[in-house]
Every structure is written in C-alpha cells, then in structure tokens.
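Figure caption, in words: inputs first, then the predicted bound structure.
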Amino acid sequence: MHIVVLTGAGISAESGVPTFRDADGLWEGHHVEDVATPEAYEAQPTMVQEFYDARRAALATVEPNPAHQALGRLEQELGDDLFLVTQNIDDLHERGGSTRVHHMHGELRSALCRACHARVEWTGTLVDYPPCPRCGITELRPDVVWFGEIPYGMDEIMVELQRADLFVSIGTSGAVYPAAGFVQFAARHGARTLELNLVPSEGTPFFTEARHGPAGVLVPAWVDEVLGSGLDAPV
Ligand code: APR
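Bound structure (adenosine-5-diphosphoribose present):
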C-alpha cells in the first residue's frame, strides 16, 4: 500500500509553533501577506529577514510531539511506501525521525541565494546579508515559498498522489492551494482519503473519512492502526 501524507501547521501546534489561521488570524503578530510575499520583501527586506530570523531561532525552543514521532515510526516501517509532504517550514518532522521530508513551502533551516539560486543549509541569521557560500554575493533570503511563488517539487508530488492508495491530510486548514487540491486529485486517481484535524476544515467534505481532535492523539492512533493491520490498512 502506498501512502501519501500531507501535513500543515496543525501538526506542530502542540509543539508550541503557532498556526497561521487560528486564534487572532495573525502569524506571530503579522498579517501573513505582510511577511510572506515577494512584494513584502522588496518593500521591507530588513523587517522580513528579522521576522524569519526570529522564526529560525525559535526552532531551538520547540520539540517534536507524538504526531511527528509517529510519522517517523511509520517511515521506518514503510520505507518508500510512505511519501511525506509538508507545508511546514519547521524541522520537527526530521527531529521526529522522518528522514525523507518534502518541504513544498521551503525550510527555515535553508537560505536561498537570489543571485545564483543555490539553496544552502542555514542556522544563523540573514539580516546582515552574509555572502552566499556558493557565489559570494550578498543576496541570501529565507528559503521559504511565499505567496505567488511556485512550491517545490510539484511534479514529484503529483506523481506520488497518482500512485497513492491512501492520502492522509494532517493539521491543515485546506485554505491554501495547491496543497488544498491534493485530496480531490488523489481521490480522482483512486485513493481513499482521510483527514486528521483538530476541527472540520474547508476540505472536510472531500475526504472519505474525517477524524477530529488533536494531532498528538489522532496521528499515533492512526499509525498504530496502519502498522497493526499488516499494511492492508483501513483508513
Ligand atoms: N491538531 C490537529 N490540527 C490542529 C491542531 C492540533 N493540535 N491545532 C490546529 N489544528 C488545525 C487547525 O484547526 C487548522 O485547520 O490545523 C490547521 C492549521 O491551519 P493553517 O493555520 O491555515 O495552516 P496550514 O493549513 O498549514 O497553512 C497552509 O498557508 O500561510 C500559508 O505557507 C503557509 O504553509 C502555510 C499554508
């Protein structure tokens, strides 16, 4: 059985990473479009760099939760039969034991050179415009896919969705495309679909089954089900 799992901010919520669209509708005190667009970066580069520098630094203050760890366990058992794609830019999947994570919206622990397009691992700050380790030009920006930019790895993701027997969406509001369209695409290609989210999302009507509650509870329970079923899993 081939499983594709899509995760969103909700899977990291219990680790203490704020989601985008809950509570006050702000992301760490900002409207998302004020920090997550190329236009925002052109207009206020220092503010945007400082914002992402703070998010990168904050990774040191959070830990993976049982939902990340359960997906790490699932990968250990399924190997290539699991494809994990996340919209999250944190590194909690990796620290929860997943080794092959497809970060479609980029990663905080990576910098993108606007001059040579290199993507380089980055743990420090960018606000002082350090030189690119590849070309030496001082044009590094956060390696994060902003609104209006094309997510990473879409061709591979679409192939994986077509192969999927089961598509599982965890902790995402279903508000942002293209990820919000994955459920219908996978279903059209024959996959069963399961939503695991705190509350019903915009996408709930499109899923074969939806379970609502905290990811830290729902995801380990679902992984136990899959692994206990000899891989002929129910959704
Ligand atoms: N367990 C499960 N789900 C949760 C939890 C939890 N503990 N806490 C919150 N959620 C759910 C919310 O109910 C919501 O449906 O997670 C979802 C988070 O939704 P968003 O904040 O919209 O995050 P996401 O769907 O990942 O956003 C998609 O939008 O701003 C862009 O690029 C950004 O990747 C992001 C994309």
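The CA atoms of residues 37 and 148 lie 7 Å apart.
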